[in-house]
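anyone seen this seq b4? input:
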Amino acid sequence: MKLAVPFKAVKDNILLTQDNEAWAYFNIEALSISDNDEAGISKRQTQLSLLFDRLADFENFELRLYNRDLDLVNRYKELQPSLATDMGETPVQMIVDEISAITATGVSQTIERFVLGIKLHNQNSGKVIKQATNAMNNFVDELAGWFNYEKPFDEKLFDDFRPSEKQAYEKVGYLDHTRRLTTDELVHLMRNNFIQGQLHDFRKVGQERDIFKLSDTVIDDGAVSGYVKLVNDDNVRYVAKLVLSTTPENITGFHLFRLVQNMSYPIDINLKAHYYKSEGIYGLANRASQSLKTASNNVEERYQAEGFSSSKDDKTIEIAEVLNDHISEKKNFFSTLVTFTVSAEDIETLHDRVANLIESFKSMDVIIVKPIGEQKRLFYYDLMGSDVSQNRYWVQLLTSEGIGELLFAVNQQVGSNIGFYIGRGAPKTVANSTQDALDGSKRLVFFNPLITNEILDGSTSTTSPNIMITGKTGRGKSYLTKIILKIIQLSNAKAIYFDPKQEMRKWYSAVLNDQTFKADYPDEYTLLNNVRFVTLDVSDKTNYGVLDPFIVIDVRHTMGQTQSSEESLKATVQEIFKQIYRDYGSLIAETELDLAINKIIQKRQAGETVGMLDVIEELAQNEDEDVKHLAKFLSGKVTRSSLSLVFSHGESEGLKLNNRITILETAGLTLPQHDKAKQDYTEFEVASMIVMTVLGVFSRTFATRDYDEKTVEIFDEAWTFTTSDIGSRIFNEMARIGRSANNLLIPVTQSVHDVKSDNFGVLFAFDEDKEQPDILQHVGLPVNDGNIKELGNMVMGQCFMKDIYGRVEKITVDEPLVAMQRAYQTVKAGDTAQAEKAYR
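predicted toks r here
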């Protein structure tokens, strides 16, 4: 093979080679499939196998996995229009700090892309004519070079391949979401071979059209033995080319492309395939027959001479017989060359990566080698448009099913394309600690909780912007919730964080009262100080009546206009009284209670100042003794408990939250344990749960008062809001109105059963060992031993994430900013492990 750049020109998604051959390139959108989703993997393998069968007519194709620069700075720039405007430059500066913190970890800032290249047919010439034309063109080119003259390029040559490209596109369209590469993407892919991880602006590279500049790199294979040194101006990168030397005897389950992605550093793969015809004198059938005949003769001769056969000949017979079986089944065969590209800034790092890659596959009985003297030749083999059909080295003979087993265009990407960093994808391997899990992954996970309402083109699998976070205490859900709250604080949205345990104030105060924190981290201090705390304290008389439903739900002047507010108020008041008296009273008393509620609602509609206490006073005036007893019973209950927040004569102005970010906490409540049965609640627990119910009613009013304003409600201990019928109904209503009301609902709770609604587009599920099968069903993963084991092996901070595209993967939650880590810290510093300090 001539060591020269094979390509000559590009147009659209077609690359023209120096020999006037043409290749078309297509972007194959990767599917995110869990390792333990056997059905999903099998379906994808079948799709790929059928695709490769369809490509046999084209004779040559290539599969590329390449790592493109993540372009972190420009990704974050896309967030700028949606940032908050009430904190000056703080949001922008915190983004800058976040990018610096991610970069400082040394993690590779790349993202995998999958490209399929197909060698096209020239529809306007036969093979003999074509070869003659190529020979003449090459002679003319060479002659022009002697006289320092550049022959004008005729772009009409591309037209000869258009019909073939259209046929290729139709065949590739068998896979969903496949598209032609743009010219910019194709150009960048060509240039990528010559820069391999060097810092660059891929947008500018993609706009280059000078073919000579695309390959303008010093390629030195003599600088360090066994490696290639790439020099571009002041940028230096060391590259190693490795080849797949042997595959497992049984290739089933050998998911090559998936295995490489799980490595902690970027690796490019290029699989070049050439269709191996079965018919003809040089066909595979004849060669298999000859091999079988030769090996059989050798076995017979050796057995007669020595009494036993050679294991090599036995193996040859076995392989030949299998080949014959496949040939008789009309299976398509391809000779393949698989190369791996590993790079680093220095030789020591590259050497370690190469050794790690070889050793990792060796444990699977797969041999990967790094030919020391062939590095430069392999470099040119890898270039787009290069013809390796005559190559005889490191060739693997695979059927279309065999190539399908390699699991091309399957990844584990999850999250948002544009968003804030929240952690890293977690490989299937079991980590020893949170930090170990982070160090072992290169897949950065980004998330924008406010993006779903802005994606209207059908590119998501859900129309719901709502997020649910579940898991046992101590697994990391509080830590993740704080990260999401930080993102909302940085964004242009108004939010309430419901904190029934008053934990947020404790953590925030610890850093806000620290003068060194303010001096060292002024932007983070500004962010945290922008939060306002509102405490509903039962012992504070100024709070009496602020949650009275007759104030929270405004039905004034709605008589004869709408029933929705009236019905909501009536249902809420009925539920509150029902929870208080439970089984007390008679049917007559309950009927009279309904009449009393209706009467007070009518007064409120007429503009009168009334409240829950007026309903009790209305009952007290009833002539029926049972009804009077009920009124007396209710009056006694509400005057000596947290129900004073809910019962009044309507004289309070109600709960006013005028700040953009509010943490609403309650003091003096007695909340029951999560698993306590409702019939076992104490009087004080019942009263506290009623308060939580009305807070849920208030949140619905907050969410729907301005449809043009982005609003968010985060409910910590969300189960306390949903134990009552009215609470569950309110949550379901809020979940349904999310998109139309521009509202985001985020319940945080222990069990996946606490919030009974399907209207949640994003799920974060931490482990809860008592309901692991339910968790898997909740996120949409198969309930099998593999997934249950993976869930049980999660370390602190790991969870399953289901994103707006329906993708489900395991992630390790991470906060990159040291200052925010301090604010989130839930365990005092001491001798505990670092993970214990970070996660709760």
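Confidence is low (pLDDT under 50) at residues 127-132, 142-151, 827-840. The chain is about 40% helix and 20% strand. kinda curious what u guys think
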